[in-house]
Design a protein that fits this description.
77% helix, Growth Hormone, Chain: A, mainly alpha, 440 residues, 2 domains
Length: 440
C-alpha cells in the first residue's frame, strides 16, 4: 500500500510533464493568438452591432465574414512558397508570423475605428478584412505549431493549442465587453489587438521551427507552380489519399448536425437563459478543458489509431445523449450530464483528430496541406448540414433528429476502422508524423 502510494505522484507527474515542455507551451501561446480574431467578428461584434441599434437581419448577415476562414486554402500556398523581403532573413515561418500578426493588429484597429451606425457597409468590409487577416494568421500558426512539435508531442501540442484558443477567444471577448462598458467599443477593440502578440513573441523566442523543410529550389514560373500545385500533388500521390480525404469530409457531419441545433433543443425544452449559461457555457467550458487534457494523455498512451477511433465513437455517443435529453424533457440533471459528456468527448476528439490531421502534412508544404485539411473538415459539415437541420427537426422531432445525427457519425467510424485495418492510416502519414526535429 505504501509502495503504491509512493508511485502515484510520479505517474501523475509523467502525465502532466508533456504539457510543460517548451514546444507544448509554445503551442498554447500560438492558440491564444489564433482564437482572438474569431472572437472579434463573432459574439463580440454581434453585441457591438446590437448595442448600436443595427437590425437583426443585418447583424446575422455578418456571419458571412467567417466564410473567409474556409477559403484560406486558396492562398495558403503563399505561406510555404513566398519568401518575404527583409523579414525573410528571420526565417520563412518567423517572418510570416510577424507579418500576419501585424496585419491582424491593423485589421482589428481598423474595425475599432469604423462606426456601424454611420456606415454599415464599411463595417462589413472591416469585419471581412479581420477574417482574412485572422485566417492567414491561422495558416502560419498551424504550420508553426506542427513544425515545432516533435511527432510524439502532436497530441499534447494539439491539446495545448486548443486550451490557448479557448482561453484567447474567451479572454478577448470578456476584455472587449468590460472595456466597452467603460471606454467605448473603439478602445475595446484596440485593447484586444494586443492578443496577436503571444504568437509573434513565441516565434521570436523559439525561432524558426526545427522541422521546417524548404521546398526544392526552383526558379520563375516553375517555382510558382510548384508552390501552388506541389502540396496537392504530394498528398494525392499517397496510398489511400482519396479515402483519407473522404474521411476528412464525413467524420464530423453527425457532430456538426447536433451542435448546430443545441440552442434550439434547449429552447424547445424550456430551459431559461440562466440555466443555459450555467450548464452549456459554464459546465461545458470546464468539461471541454478536461476532455482536452484526457485527449493529450490518451493519445500518448494509446497511440494515434486507437485514440482516434475511440474519440469518434465517443462523439457519436454524445449525440445519442441529446436524444435521451430530448426524450426526458426539461431536466437540469439531464442537461448537465449531456453537456458534460458532449464537451469531454469534443475536447478529447478535437485533440486526437487534430493530431492525426497534423501528422498527415508533409513538412515541405505544412501550411497549404493543413489549410486544405482543416477547410475540408469544416466546409463539408457546414454546407451539408447548415441548410437541413431545421427542416429535419420540424419534420421528425428532436428525439429522432438526434438519433439520425448518431447514425450520421457511423460512416466516419467505420471508414477509419477499415483504414486502420487495411494499413492506410499508417501509409497516409506525412513527414510531420514521422520525421523528428534535426539536432542543432
Amino acid at each position: 500500500m505504501t509502495k503504491t502510494a509512493a508511485q502515484s505522484p510520479p505517474k501523475l507527474l509523467l502525465s502532466v510533464k508533456p504539457y510543460l515542455e517548451r514546444e507544448s507551451l509554445a503551442a498554447f501561446f500560438l492558440g491564444v493568438s489564433s482564437g482572438f480574431p474569431y472572437a472579434m467578428i463573432g459574439a463580440t461584434l454581434t453585441t457591438r452591432l446590437a448595442q448600436d441599434g443595427i437590425d437583426k437581419k443585418t447583424v446575422t448577415a455578418f456571419a458571412l465574414a467567417f466564410l473567409v476562414y474556409n477559403l484560406k486554402v486558396f492562398w495558403a500556398w503563399m505561406v510555404d512558397g513566398v519568401r518575404l523581403p527583409l523579414l525573410g532573413r528571420l526565417g520563412q515561418r518567423v517572418s510570416w508570423m510577424l507579418l500576419c500578426g501585424l496585419l491582424v493588429i491593423a485589421a482589428v484597429v481598423n474595425l475599432a475605428l469604423v462606426d456601424p451606425g454611420a456606415d454599415i457597409a464599411t463595417t462589413a468590409l472591416a469585419a471581412i478584412l479581420v477574417g482574412a487577416a485572422g485566417a492567414t494568421f491561422d495558416i502560419v500558426i498551424d504550420a508553426y505549431r506542427i513544425e515545432t512539435l516533435k511527432p510524439y508531442q502532436l497530441g499534447v501540442g494539439s491539446g495545448m493549442s486548443q486550451y490557448g484558443w479557448r482561453i484567447g477567444s474567451a479572454a478577448a471577448g470578456a476584455l472587449a465587453l468590460i472595456v466597452a462598458g467603460r471606454m467605448g467599443w473603439s478602445v475595446a477593440y484596440i485593447a484586444c489587438a494586443g492578443f496577436a502578440l503571444p504568437a509573434m513573441l513565441t516565434a521570436l523566442v523559439m525561432g524558426e521551427p526545427p522541422r521546417h523543410r524548404e521546398p526544392t529550389a526552383r526558379k520563375g514560373l516553375a517555382e510558382l507552380w510548384a508552390s501552388i500545385a506541389g502540396p496537392f500533388v504530394e498528398f494525392f500521390q499517397r496510398s489511400g489519399a482519396f479515402l483519407v480525404l473522404l474521411f476528412i469530409l464525413v467524420h464530423k457531419i453527425g457532430d456538426t448536425l447536433a451542435n448546430l441545433t443545441l440552442r434550439l433543443l434547449f429552447n424547445d425544452l424550456g430551459f431559461t437563459n440562466d440555466e443555459i449559461a450555467i450548464y452549456d457555457v459554464g459546465v461545458g467550458f470546464w468539461a471541454y478543458l478536461i476532455g482536452v487534457f484526457i485527449g493529450g494523455v490518451l493519445y500518448a498512451r494509446l497511440g494515434l489509431k486507437r485514440s482516434v477511433l475511440l474519440a469518434l465513437v465517443l462523439m457519436a455517443v454524445s449525440n445519442l445523449s441529446f436524444a435521451l435529453l430530448a426524450a426526458a424533457g426539461h431536466s437540469n440533471l439531464g442537461m448537465a450530464g449531456a453537456i458534460t459528456f458532449e464537451n469531454i468527448a469534443s475536447g478529447f476528439g478535437g485533440v486526437v483528430v487534430v493530431a492525426y490531421f497534423s501528422a498527415l502534412c508533409d513538412l515541405r508544404f505544412t501550411a497549404a496541406q493543413y489549410a486544405l485539411i482543416s477547410a475540408g473538415a469544416s466546409v463539408a459539415g457546414r454546407l451539408l448540414t447548415g441548410t437541413t437541420a431545421g427542416a429535419l427537426i420540424e419534420s421528425l422531432g428532436n428525439v429522432n433528429f438526434y438519433l439520425i445525427t448518431t447514425v450520421a457519425a457511423l460512416p466516419g467510424i467505420v471508414l477509419f476502422w477499415w483504414m486502420s485495418r487495411a494499413g492506410l492510416v499508417d501509409l497516409s502519414i506525412g513527414t510531420a508524423g514521422k520525421e523528428p526535429a534535426s539536432e542543432a
